[in-house]
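EI: anyone free to look at a 328-residue chain?
SC: sure, send it
EI:
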Amino acid sequence: MQHREDMSPQDSKAAGAEATEEQKAQKQGCMEPTAPPIPPPSPPPPGPPEYLRPRLIFHTQLAHGSPTGRIHGFTNVKELYTKIAEVFDISPSEILFCTLNSHKVDMQKLLGGQIGLEDFIFAHVRGETKEVEVTKTEDALGLTITDNGAGYAFIKRIKEGSTIDQLKTVCVGDHIEAINEQSIVGCRHYEVAKMLKEQPRGIPFTLRLVGPKRAFDMIGMRTRAPKSNEGKMVNGKETLRLRSKGAATVQENEFEERATRKVDDLLESYMGIRDLELATTIVEAGKDKKNPDDFAEALDSVLGDFAFPDVFLFDVWGAIGDVKNGRI
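SC: here you go
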């Protein structure tokens, strides 16, 4: 049995006084305070804003025939190709280019820098490889070159009656893989156009081309792009704007679409290339500028490597102004 010794009234008062002094000391900071409770762990930092990877679902097929796949979560063309490749269990390097709402090699439907939110994406993959010997009889071969945004330059237009037009094995949509056995994979379209322009007249050179794989009902067709109004963008509805740098954005802007189309025409006239993303970048650099000098300075800051001639810059400035003021 445990024994408890009773406290006297004096002992009780002393203990109470001691406790009171201890409480006062704590309040006055004379005693070391007890450690504060450990706060709960902070939640993980939020992920990237939703706008960086729009949760938009697109339907896709391989142009030569396949089941329909669903893709989302891409912000640029390379990511788009990767998503398509994952769906169909192929390598992204197999994809030459994409068209919108048509399985045909139709440059009017070529995927550029924007995709309508209701567009159906058809991926054209590598098909037959062929080598063609070309001899220039005039300075221009009659080709318009573009690229797929992922390292492949290909033929977007063949001028009627030109040197290339006489070579019936060369088709719109052919990827130019090599010039004189020198690979040009990874080169931009303007670099390829410059190499072709520098080929001397009268001396044969070789092109190694890769055509898109075609469905049975398309074999033997030789399509040629129309002379104008190529790659019509979607009007009257929102589009997903793809960017090589930065996030994709959803936008609807009729001015930018019309101005971009006009600048793309000028790129073909001056440089022999078509590039909707490049044209859009040029329009974005100039749409808020007050004079040609400010525009030229802004363009040089983002696209200085191109060294555009002054006459091109003035024509582009005029085109942007015409569209902005409703003259075209």
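EI: The first strand starts at residue 58 and ends at 62.
SC: 👍
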